[in-house]
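cron nightly-structures :: item 1 of 1
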Amino acid sequence: MTNGRSHDSTEKVSRRAALAIGCCVALFVGGCLSPSPQEVVVYTALDKDFSQPIFDDFTQQTGITVLAKFDTEATKTVGLVNEIIAERERPRCDLFWNNEILNSIRLEKRQLLDVYASPAASDFPEMYRAADGAWHGFAARARVLIVNTDRVPHAEWPDSIRDLVDPKWKDQVGIAKPLFGTTATHAACLFAVWGDEPAKTFFRQLKSNARVLAGNKQVALAVASGQLAFGLTDTDDAIIELEKGLPVAIVYPDREPDQLGTLFIPNTLAIVRGAPRRDAARQLVDYLLSPAVEEKLAAGRSAQIPLNRRVSAAVRVETPATVHAMPVDFAQAADR
């Protein structure tokens, strides 16, 4: 009797041990344990056409696979930001590649970003990076005026964003809806630089004088087709129409030292606090801040503007080294 009970007890222990080992194997195979260090998850607001080749190069050089989640045209950056906020208790994203800056600072203010002092950061102007390494700016776009050269004689070309509110051009100029993307960023920066009342006055005048279109691309297309005389857009949208050979010119507004300055809006990189693959994310940050990456983005169709002081390759667009850049406290602008 005793031997029988002992045998049953031993059998139960063996079954439990086997079950425990089986569960561990299942968890490992199913990917429920720690993520592989050879992967990094990136939420990416820059268009896939421009960012995916960069990720492929990184994977080829390091062996680390980049799992990228891209935004949609409808939600722009805001959709990805809201996902990072929603996932704050259990982050899925390791690195956020934002195609602007204010929403990165929004995450910083919520304490959802990790701090990383990348050795490559010192090659960038202080205005375009967080002092503590919470975010890193690179590869900018400029806010520019695109002008239809058939409709507007050279002597009448605009040279300031204030030309958008000149009654002379009523219903002949355009802007994107200032609720998303770089147009919203531009609006917030103007409120930060000018103050509330002057900025409100400007936007009221703008609303009554300009056509408000769905996005910056639509503004560029409307000007290139002659529907509008000129409009406010980004360099990446403007240069596409220019290099198609259409009758357009790009004007960097308020570019002289005694003027407001042209606004340059950088892409930004930020490691998410609690990122499961933080070491791989840091490697990717260092790679993306390299001169080679900015040179590749500058040579691409979107002509991203290099901010790295070590970039010496010729670019098709103006940079903060060639025009007066609008000085902005981006943290203050984010509060707006």
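cron nightly-structures :: done
Residues 1-15, 17-35 have pLDDT under 50 and may be disordered.
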